[in-house]
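Q: what does this look like with zinc ion bound?
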Amino acid sequence: MRIASVIVDVPTMNTDKLFDYLVPEQWEEFIQPGMRVSVPFGPRLIQGFIIELKEHTEVMKLKSIHEPLDIYPVLNEELLNLGKWLSEQVLCLKISAYQAMLPAAMKAKYEKVFKRIDDRTNPFLDEIFGNKMELKWDAASERKLLPLLQQEIKNGTVEIKYLVKNKANKKTIRVIKCLLTNEELLQTIEGLSQNALKQKKVLEYFLQNGNEYIPVKQVQEVTGVAPTTIRSLISKGYFQEENKEEYRDPYEHRIFEKTKPFQLTEEQSMAMEPIIRSIEGNYQETFLLNGVTGSGKTEVYLQSIQSVLDKGKEAIVLVPEISLTPQMVERFKGRFGNDVAVLHSGLSIGEKYDEWRKIERKEARVVVGARSAIFAPFENLGIIIIDEEHENSYKQEENPRYHARDIAIYRGKLHQCPVILGSATPSLESFARSQKGVYTLLSMKKRMNNQALPSVSIVDMREELREGNRSMFSRELFEKLQDRLSKKEQTVLFLNRRGHSSFVMCRDCGYVLQCPHCEISLTYHRFTSQMKCHYCGYEASVPSVCPECDSEHIRYFGTGTQKVEEELAKLLPEAKVIRMDVDTTSRKGAHERLLQQFQEGKADILLGTQMIAKGLDFPNITLVGVLSADTMLHLPDFRASEKTFQLLTQVSGRAGRHHLAGEVVIQTYTPEHYSVELAGKQDYDHFYKKEMMMRKLGSYPPFYYLALITVSHEDLMKVVSITEKISNYLHSKLSKEAIILGPATSPIPKINNRYRYQCLIKYKREPNLTQQLRHLLEHYQQQITSEGLTINIDVNPYMMM
Ligand code: ADP
Ligand code: ZN
Ligand code: ZN
């Protein structure tokens, strides 16, 4: 008798445990841990993951597995264990940890088919496939062919494909293909009557462009004909029409020029040495590669990966989604060619699955991808690299709320391989660990070819106001803008705006109201005209004069990209501007397209938010302007200074990366703030020291750990009372050293008519914390499942809203 222990796909805490099922005899040889199965659960059939197989169980009345849903395990043993560990670390359900590791195409709503992949004669396959190349899963299952097909998949003669059932949510475009040979085309063109000029145009177009499918839109644009012309050609039988999925893998048809390893500079060799030692010695070590922008970090990654591949092992490279640009991909594909799989959100679900399969089939040994690529199902990992390790996008902001860095180190330990965290501006946490010797610090301080860092000028906007300039452009920035326009050089204008909050600032002295208890800016609430601290709940009304300088120019602060665009149009009507923000880039591929346009010189100014801070490497950019360095500085987030420093450093790095020297203008109301001043000097070490002092004063990471509990519900009273009970409970259970703040309203106090309250825990060592938090979740389970209560627990939060 074989028993399978299954984690079922029912998202509640009560069901977050193993359920035993009997494996029917016919599946005994077939079923393996890591496969998904459908099992009876109450009155329904649901999905689940097989975690382990065993011979005995305590359960008396065993139900049987209904049927397998996979033909081979979709999660290997390592990932099954990782999922368990992850769910304990971040307090999520095991099912959500497992689901997070799989590509979307493998989720339930996709249809599975078996596909023959070699066309050699094979009597067995000929018989079961008939004269078709594909066989539907359900049919195969009914004919009890699954175990046999499992063997064929192992032999490499059959593969399994996931088809998207629901075509409606896919964008398709109409394409047409000419059915005539070139000769027939010529004849047809000659035979057309004199006034069929338009049809002639279309046919000639196809004569030139071969017999591929071409989008109808494109044909219309190029030839200038109306849709009716094309329709009549189709009805004559000259063309075949089809709907094609619009998106194509941007890399599919590109040939990447093969690149050779550079002769390393001395700094690069010094950095490589200990990495190679760890690769050769098969032991785990975490390196923090702190190199200024343009110091050649990527080359260090590439050559480290090469030695891993030489040993027959595999590599994972994580890159923030936003900088996973074609430029970045090119560098990896250029070096390792088809050995590289790319995983990012721009790919369609099917394409993502294909890339994932390349990894699984061991056709690709290097994966370059965003956060979730950390779960790549490699079995022989030799290195994990996280580029721009300070980026917040490595933290997933929904369940499971994991940080890719933690998973990387977990997997690194398991595979005994190095983990490299690279950044010009490492997170405080990582740098502090390198100071304590937990990570090994590798520094690269010189830019390639000793290129100078761009010169940075910090403009005091209070001064501008005093001199009567009320525009959002300082005189210096405006003059430089005009100068670049006349020289036909390009400018990047950066507007730092994020989140929904705003703050109150004195435009004369730059003073910003702070919470007396939390060292955090107070957030202005327009409706109540009140200022609030979102950590502790402190409230104050907006003063009518500045407490620092008695000026009356103290008020709410904030500007949007649209406003800047309008202002530019007024002041510099001749300038061509490309605006990049969430509004202009929400469509698939828009981000790349706009950048492409800018690169091709179709605009003078690129105006945007954080999304333009990274990865831009265009030779013609000689000016970078930061419109207001302060907007992020005053977010209700203890990392505000760190983020400001990182962002300003990144943005400044965009200018003058090539022959033309670069200049940076940073406009600010607080030029004396250390994060602005030190970003101007690109002085990370000094910034680190200063910021560590601030963190110590405020009892923040890396001196303390944090856990953030956010409670939400439609009923305000309920939210307040539950958050209060949670806070009281924690006070009674945690040690005296733990600091528990709240209940306080969240920085975003209401979303979708649901009120939000929070409670923040700061602690150094609380061995029982996760247990207590889990207990809390269990306690409120009833209200969570049936009364619409939400309790989010974020261990090591990055989003403080
Ligand atoms: P980072 O990743 O640190 O910002 P990059 O890897 O982009 O720096 O390197 C900057 C430039 O220097 C790139 O164009 C890269 O091709 C080039 N480069 C890197 N290493 C070398 C080397 N050893 N010799 C010559 N050029 C190099
Ligand atoms: Zn003031
Ligand atoms: Zn406070």
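The pocket of zinc ion (ligand 2) is lined by residues 506, 508-509, 511, 546, 548-549, 551 (CB under 6 Å). Confidence is low (pLDDT under 50) at residues 166-170.
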